[in-house]
């Protein structure tokens, strides 16, 4: 008999009944778009960003934020036809009070067996998921082949696993603390000076510093819709300073650090930055 977990729809229902928020995944472990604007990645294929690409949905409609335990949502409406082509089911670990240490290869698994306390493990295509009870911020690449998935992230469900789940240890939390944000994929390349030439008025240190400080504050003070706030802030900074060559990687690093302190992953930051540049035609 085919295990229940290998059937995405049946697995989703069982997980939801146990209080685990779920969402369907299409091929490539990519979330579906749950509204007409997002169907087939029409919004840019950027999950978790309310204002990504051309998407103007009234709420975050795909990615981890769409995960739900509501049986009505799972079985009817926009989700119903998705299960016919769904390649897998994913879940939001943080929404279930869990943290997944995603070990991508044999070397990462070998490291975990030495460095981390045992807990429930689930075999993956190339490695293992180690699942702990407790939540923390999600961080990718905390060390070679190791990602942490908890709040504001999703993990593919691959079965119940083996072993007894244990509490999230300080050794896992410490991995996120030691993971220093890097401004990857945030390089500007060649940005032309505005038409008319001359010295850029934004090069005044006080003007630029004030703008970056205000942007950091806006992100830090966000209490809701953090994704949207980060995107809009990046868009505002780029609209003023993005075409004149004022911004340095140090400035971008400050913005990324503020966003990550609110729980955004490096991927979320990079996607938001890329979306903002695209929206401004940069």
Q: Structural class given helices, strands, pairing? A: alpha+beta
Instruction: Name the helix and strand elements from N-terminus to C-terminus, one letter apiece.
Output: HEEHEEHEEEEEEHHHHH
| Rg over CA atoms | 21 Å
- Percent helix among the residues? 25-40%
Strand content: 5-15%
Residue-averaged pLDDT: 78
Q: How many strand units?
A: 10
Low-pLDDT parts are: 44-56, 180-199
Structure description:
Helix 5 packs antiparallel against helix 6 and helix 5 (205-220) packs parallel to helix 7 (249-261). Strands 4, 5, 6, 7, 8 and 10 form a 6-stranded mixed sheet that branches. Strands 2-1-3-9 form a 4-stranded antiparallel sheet. It is an alpha+beta fold. A hairpin with a 3-residue loop joins strand 1 and strand 2. The chain is globular and about 60 Å long. The chain has helices at 8-17, 71-75, 106-115, 170-178, 205-220, 226-241, 249-261, 266-279; strands spanning 22-26, 30-31, 88-91, 98-103, 120-123, 128-133, 139-143, 146-149, 155-156, 166-167. Helix content is 33%, strand content 14%. The chain is built from 8 helices and 10 strands.
Task: Please supply descriptive tags for the structure shown above.
single chain, 282 residues, alpha+beta, 6-stranded mixed β-sheet, 4-stranded antiparallel β-sheet, 8 helices, 10 strands, 14% strand
């Amino acid at each position: 008999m085919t295990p229940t977990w290998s059937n995405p729809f049946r697995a989703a229902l069982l997980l939801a009944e146990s209080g685990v928020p779920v969402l369907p995944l299409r091929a490539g472990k990519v979330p579906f778009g749950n509204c007409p604007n997002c169907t087939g990645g029409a919004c840019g294929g950027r999950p978790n960003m309310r204002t990504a690409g051309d998407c103007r949905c009234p709420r975050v409609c795909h990615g981890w934020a769409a995960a739900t335990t509501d049986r009505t949502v799972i079985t009817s409406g926009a989700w119903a036809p998705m299960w016919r082509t769904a390649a897998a089911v994913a879940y939001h670990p943080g929404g279930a009070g869990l943290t997944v240490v995603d070990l991508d290869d044999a070397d990462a698994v070998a490291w975990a067996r030495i460095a981390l306390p045992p807990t429930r493990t689930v075999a993956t295509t190339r490695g293992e998921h180690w699942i702990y009870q407790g939540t923390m911020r999600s961080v990718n690449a905390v060390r070679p082949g190791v990602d942490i998935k908890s709040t504001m992230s999703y993990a593919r469900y691959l079965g119940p696993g083996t072993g007894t789940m244990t509490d999230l240890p300080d050794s896992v939390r410490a991995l996120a603390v030691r993971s220093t944000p890097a401004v990857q994929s945030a390089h500007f390349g060649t940005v032309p000076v505005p038409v008319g030439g001359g010295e850029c008025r934004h090069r005044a240190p006080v003007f630029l510093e004030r703008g970056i400080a205000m942007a950091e504050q806006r992100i830090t003070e966000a209490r809701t819709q953090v994704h949207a706030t980060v995107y809009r802030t990046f868009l505002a900074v780029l609209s003023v300073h993005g075409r004149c060559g004022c911004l340095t990687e140090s400035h971008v690093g400050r913005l990324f650090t503020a966003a990550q302190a609110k729980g955004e992953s490096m991927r979320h930051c990079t996607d938001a930055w890329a979306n903002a540049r695209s929206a401004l035609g940069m």
